[in-house]
From TrEMBL:
This is Methylthioribose-1-phosphate isomerase. It comes from the Bacteria. It comes from Albimonas pacifica. GO terms for biological process: L-methionine salvage from methylthioadenosine. The keyword Isomerase applies. One of its GO terms (molecular function) is S-methyl-5-thioribose-1-phosphate isomerase activity.
Amino acid sequence: MKIDGVPYRTIWPAADGAVEILDQTLFPHRFEILRLTGLDEAAHAIRAMQVRGAPLIGATAAYGLALALRKDASDAGLASAAATLLATRPTAVNLHWALERMKAALAPLAPAERADAAWAEAAALCDEDVAINAAIGDHGLKIVEELAAKKAPGEPVRILTHCNAGWLATVDWGTATAPIYKAHDKGVPVEVWVDETRPRNQGAFLTAWELGRHGVPHKVIVDNAGGHLMQRGLVDMVIVGTDRTTARGDVCNKIGTYLKALAAHDNGVPFYVALPSPTIDFTVDDGFEIPIEERSGDEVSWLPGLTDAGDYTRVRLTPETSPAANPAFDVTPARLVTALVTERGVCPATREGIAGLFPERAAA
C-alpha cells in the first residue's frame, strides 16, 4: 500500500543485511522506520508490539530466525532462536506456523547453508502473504459489490471493523481491509466505521491512519457505539480479522470482537471474518482451548498521545490504587459468524466448510 504516494510493505530486508519495519507503537503521530539487526531486537519488536497482527508477527519471526542464524546456524542455535521467538506472544498461531515452516526448510541443510536459505525462505513467506491477502480482497470484494447493488446509486456500503486487520497487520493489503481497499480502488462507494479498539487503540491509531492515507472514507467510533449503529440500520456488514481460527470455525480475535458479533447477530447484520489459511489451527477444535494473552494492566491505565504543543506523552486514566485486567483477545463462536473469507474463497464457519477449502490440511 502507499504512504503519501510511496509504496511500502510493513517489513523488508535492508541492503546491509538488517531488516526494517514500521514502528507501529508510534502511529499515528510519528512515522519511523526501525532497524532489526539480530534475534533479540526481532523478539522485542514482536513482544513490544512494534509489529503486530498475526501475519506480520509470523513474517517478523521468520526474519528474526534468519538474523539469528547468521550468528549461530548450528542445530542448537536454530532450536534456541525458534524457542525465543515462539515465547514472545502466545495467541497468534501464525507465529508457530511460520517458525515450523522455517525449521522444516532449514533443519535438513548443513549449518553453513542455513543463513542464506533462511533469508530466502523468509522473503518467500512474505511474498506469499501479500498474494494471500490480495486474494482475500478479491473474494471479499464480491460481498461488498453484492451489498452495493442493493443500495441507492452513490450510497456507500457501510462497513464496521474492529482492531487493525489492515495492511499494517500483514505484509501488505491486510485481511479485513483487503476487500475494502479493493472496493474503494474499483470505485465502489464504501464508508468504514472504525472501532477505537481499547486499550491499545489499534483502530483509532492504525486502521484510521492507513485508511486515511489511502483515501478511504471512514469515521472513528468508540467501541460501544457499534451496537447503536447496527440498531439504526447504519451498518451493512461487519468484517474483522482473526489471530487463530479453530477447525470448526470458532474465531479468536482482539478483545471486543465477540460483543460486535452478538450485536450483529441480534440486528441481522452479516458478520464476516477475513483470514489467511495459516491462521487456521486444525489442531484445536474448541475456541476456548486457545490460550488468551494477558497483557500489562498499564495498557488499560495509561493512554499515549500528543499534547496541544505537539509533544508525545502519555496520561493516566485510572486511579493509582485501581488494578487493571487486560485480556487481549476473546473467542467468537462459529454460530455467530456469517462466513469466513479466505484466499481460496468464502465458506461457512463450520468444520465442513473449512475442510472443503483446505482438504489437504484438514486431513493431515
